[in-house]
Design brief:
Elements lengths: L1 H11 L3 H16 L1
Length: about 30
């Protein structure tokens, strides 16, 4: 997971807040 997050950061230039928000959304979706 960490490697994918780092790749996403470098590829899209997103900030950590956006990444964490996406992770939270993915987690909520996976738990449903």
């Amino acid at each position: 997971m960490p490697l994918r997050v780092e790749y996403s950061l470098t590829a899209t230039g997103k900030n950590l807040d956006d990444v964490f928000q996406e992770l939270d959304s993915w987690w909520e979706n996976s738990m449903q």
